[in-house]
Design brief:
Layout: H1 2-15, H2 18-21, E1 29-33, E2 41-45, E3 50-55, E4 60-61, E5 64-65, E6 67-74, E7 78-86, E8 96-102, E9 111-117, E10 121-127, E11 134-142, E12 146-152, E13 155-161, E14 168-169, E15 174-175, E16 182-189, E17 197-208, E18 217-226, E19 232-239, E20 242-247, E21 252-257, E22 260-265, E23 272-274, E24 287-288, E25 294-299, E26 308-313, E27 320-321, E28 328-333, E29 339-346, E30 349-356, E31 363-364, E32 372-377, E33 384-388, E34 395-399, E35 407-408, E36 416-422, E37 428-434, E38 445-453, E39 458-467, E40 483-492
Parallel strand pairs: 11-19
Antiparallel strand pairs: 1-6, 2-3, 3-17, 4-5, 6-16, 7-12, 7-17, 8-9, 8-16, 9-10, 10-11, 12-13, 13-14, 13-15, 18-19, 18-40, 20-21, 21-22, 22-23, 24-25, 25-26, 26-27, 28-29, 29-30, 30-31, 32-33, 33-34, 34-35, 36-37, 37-38, 38-39
Length: about 500
C-alpha cells in the first residue's frame, strides 16, 4: 500500500505544471499561456528584484494569445510597475514584454496590458471579453524606462516614464469588466512561434491602487484612430478638459480648451494657441472652410454671453461676426464655401438653420418639436445630415439643403446617436453613440464611436471609450479619409 501511494504522489507531481509549483518573487506561479512551441521559463534574482523571462509564442493579439506569463491571483484595484528591457535588439521588432491583468489563463481570456514592443512602440492593449478581438491605444512615447498599468474599477490606464522622469499618464484608457479574482503579472511573447526571446523586468512592484480621496483628476487625451484597423494612437494628453478636434489640410489638429482654440501636428508635437481676437470664450462648435483658409467658430464672450458665430483666418486674426441672433452653434460649411449650417435656439426650440457665410438673413430648416442639432453637409452637397430627437431617441437624419425630404438615416437600434460626420469620399459616416437612458450629450460617459456604411446602413464599432461631450462634436476626418481624430477622457483617482 505504501508503495502504491508513493507512486501516486510521484505521478501527481509530474502532472503539475510549473505554474502550480514555482513561486517566483512576489508572484505565485508561471507558465505558458496558449499554444507555444518552445516552453518558456523565468529566473528570479531576489537581491535585484529582477525577473528574466524567456519565451516563445506567436503573439499577444487577435482573439488568442501565446506567451510565458508570471502571475499572482488578486482581487480589487491594483497597480503593477516595472522597468522593462529586452536583452537583445534582434528578433521580431514586435516582440512584446507586458504588464498584464488577465481574467484567466485561457489563451482567449479577457485582459488588459501595457505592452513594450521590441521596436520601442508602447501600447495599452485589451480584449474586452473572452474570444473577442484585441485593440490598442499607442502611446506617443517610445521605449520608456518604466511602465505601469493601473486597474481602477473596470478601467485600465497606462503610465510611463523616461530616464530621470516621474511616471505620468500615457493617455487613453480601456474598459474591461473583470471579475474577482483575476491574474496580475508580467509576460513575454516572441511574436514568432519558432523563436525564443528574453526580457528583464526590474524593480517590479504590485500595490493596491490608491483609494479615491475627493474628486478624481480629469485628463483629456487627443487621439487618432485608423479606420481600417481600429488602432488608436495618442497625440497629446494633459490634465483638465479640452475638446473637439478638426483636421486641417496640412495635417494639423485644432481643438478648443479654456475658451481658446489650439493646434498641434496630427502626429504629435508642440501645442500652439491660435489668436482669435475678441473671441476668448470659444465652445466646441467650430469648423473649417472647404478651401482650408478660414475657420468658423462659436464664441460666447460678447454681448449676452450667448454663443455667436464668427469666421477668422485659419492662422488666426480678427474675427468677423456672422450671426446676429444667439445662441447659435456652428457645425457645417457648405462645399462651395457660401453657406454655414448651425443649431440655433429661437423661442425655446433648438432647430437647424443656415446663413450665408458672408452674413445676412438666417433660414430655418427644421420645425419638429425637441432638439435638432449637429448639421453637416455631405461632401457632394446633396444633403445636410443632422441629429434629431423627434422619433423618441436621438437619431441621425438628413435633408436636402433647402430643408426638404427629411428622413431618418440610422436604424432604431436602441441607442442615442449624435454628431454624424461623413467621410471625404461620402461613403461612410462616423457617429457618437450613447446608451438608451442617457439624455442629451453629457460629458464623462461610456460611449462608442461607430461607423455606418451609407450604401447598406451597416454599422460597426470603431472604439469604446470614456467620453461624450467634446469627444467628436465637429468634423474630424483626415483629408485622405483614413483616420479620425477624437478626444477621450480619464478620471484618475
Amino acid at each position: 500500500m505504501g508503495t502504491r501511494y508513493a507512486g501516486l504522489v510521484v505521478v501527481m507531481a509530474l502532472m503539475l505544471s510549473p505554474a502550480m509549483i514555482a513561486q517566483p518573487g512576489i508572484f505565485e506561479g508561471h507558465g505558458d499561456v496558449g499554444t507555444v512551441l518552445h516552453p518558456g521559463s523565468v529566473e528570479y534574482d531576489a537581491a535585484q528584484r529582477t525577473y528574466r523571462i524567456t519565451a516563445s509564442g506567436e503573439n499577444i493579439w487577435g482573439t488568442a494569445d501565446a506567451l510565458q506569463f508570471v502571475w499572482k491571483k488578486v482581487s480589487g484595484d491594483v497597480s503593477l510597475t516595472a522597468e522593462v528591457a529586452f536583452t537583445t535588439s534582434t528578433g521580431d521588432p514586435h516582440k512584446k514584454a507586458v504588464l498584464m491583468v488577465r481574467q484567466s489563463l485561457d489563451a482567449d481570456a479577457a485582459y488588459a496590458d501595457a505592452a513594450v514592443h521590441g521596436v520601442g512602440l508602447t501600447s495599452l492593449q485589451s480584449r474586452e471579453e473572452k474570444g473577442a478581438a484585441t485593440h490598442e491605444v499607442q502611446a506617443n512615447v517610445t521605449a520608456p524606462k518604466r511602465v505601469r498599468i493601473t486597474k481602477a474599477g473596470a478601467y485600465f490606464y497606462m503610465s510611463v516614464a523616461g530616464e530621470g522622469e516621474e511616471l505620468h499618464l500615457a493617455g487613453g484608457s480601456m474598459k474591461v469588466a473583470l471579475k474577482d479574482p483575476f491574474y496580475v503579472g508580467i509576460g513575454l511573447s516572441a511574436h514568432n512561434k519558432d523563436a525564443t526571446e528574453t526580457a528583464t523586468f526590474r524593480g517590479v512592484e504590485m500595490t493596491p491602487a490608491p483609494a479615491a480621496s475627493g474628486q478624481p483628476k480629469l485628463y483629456s487625451t487627443l487621439e487618432t484612430i485608423t479606420v481600417a484597423s481600429t488602432d488608436a494612437r495618442v497625440v497629446y494628453v494633459a490634465p483638465g478638459r479640452f475638446e473637439a478636434p478638426n483636421w486641417t489640410r496640412d495635417n494639423m489638429l485644432l481643438f478648443n480648451g479654456d475658451g481658446r482654440l489650439r493646434r498641434i501636428p496630427a502626429d504629435g508635437g508642440k501645442v500652439e494657441t491660435i489668436d482669435t481676437g475678441i473671441a476668448t470664450r470659444l465652445n466646441n462648435d467650430h469648423v473649417l472652410s472647404p478651401d482650408g483658409t478660414m475657420m468658423g467658430i462659436s464664441d460666447q464672450s460678447q454681448e449676452k454671453r450667448q454663443s455667436l458665430i464668427y469666421v477668422v483666418p485659419i492662422g488666426g486674426g480678427t474675427p468677423r461676426k456672422v450671426t446676429e441672433k444667439s445662441p447659435s452653434y456652428l457645425h457645417g460649411w457648405s462645399p462651395d464655401g457660401k453657406t454655414l449650417a448651425f443649431c440655433g435656439e429661437r423661442n425655446g426650440n433648438f432647430d437647424v438653420y443656415t446663413i450665408p457665410a458672408a452674413g445676412g438673413e438666417e433660414t430655418r430648416l427644421t420645425t419638429a418639436e425637441g432638439l435638432d442639432d449637429g448639421p453637416e453637409y455631405s461632401p457632394d452637397a446633396q444633403y445636410i445630415y443632422f441629429n434629431s430627437i423627434r422619433s423618441g431617441l436621438m437619431q441621425i437624419w438628413r435633408m436636402k439643403p433647402d430643408g426638404s425630404e427629411q428622413e431618418q438615416v440610422t436604424p432604431d437600434d436602441g441607442y442615442n446617436n449624435w454628431f454624424a460626420h461623413v467621410s471625404p469620399d461620402g461613403q461612410r459616416m462616423v457617429l457618437l453613440t450613447y446608451e438608451k437612458g442617457v439624455s442629451g450629450h453629457p460629458e464623462n460617459q461610456d460611449v462608442m464611436l461607430r461607423m455606418m456604411t451609407l450604401a447598406n446602413k451597416r454599422i460597426s464599432v470603431l472604439a469604446k471609450l470614456f467620453g461624450g461631450q467634446g469627444t467628436i462634436n465637429v468634423p474630424s476626418w483626415s483629408p485622405d479619409g483614413l483616420r479620425l481624430a477624437f478626444v477621450s477622457y480619464q478620471l484618475v483617482p
